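User: What would this chain look like folded?
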Amino acid sequence: MKEFEARVAWQRAGQAFLDGRYSRAHDWQFDGGLRLRASSSPLSVPLPMSDPTALDPEEALVAAASSCHMLFFLSIAREQGFTVDSYVDRAVGYLGEDNAGRMAMTRIELRPAIAFAAEAAGARQPTGEELDAIHHAAHERCYIANSLKTEVVVMQVR
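Assistant: Here's the prediction, encoded as structure tokens.
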């Protein structure tokens, strides 16, 4: 079994706490040394208790699902002989009530726009069916999507 670790650290730093008006800003640190400022979303906790310039957990979840799908897509496309020049996803997550009435990320839509190397340069171009099959295989292999209860949908941009 592989392990993945993140260090999440928050400090009160002399702020009041019991009144609920404390900063939700905190730090995420990862094994390679990357450090990110994180906070609750201003959509969840109003300013100034949240930091709109920081990464929030909801955005991180959407980005993780998108990134995982993209990495498998690139790998599968390469295995099938397609050269990808660029892959840009504008993924969107929807927060709402789940079937049990709890707040949850109820849907994540991936909207990748993918450019393949030019056919003139001898590169193979995938058909619509091949493209759909690569997305399907990437989705099946994406362990982030496999770990979520929410629906993760690829909205093909062509």
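Helices lie at 57-79, 128-141, 143-147. If you want, I can go into more detail on any region.
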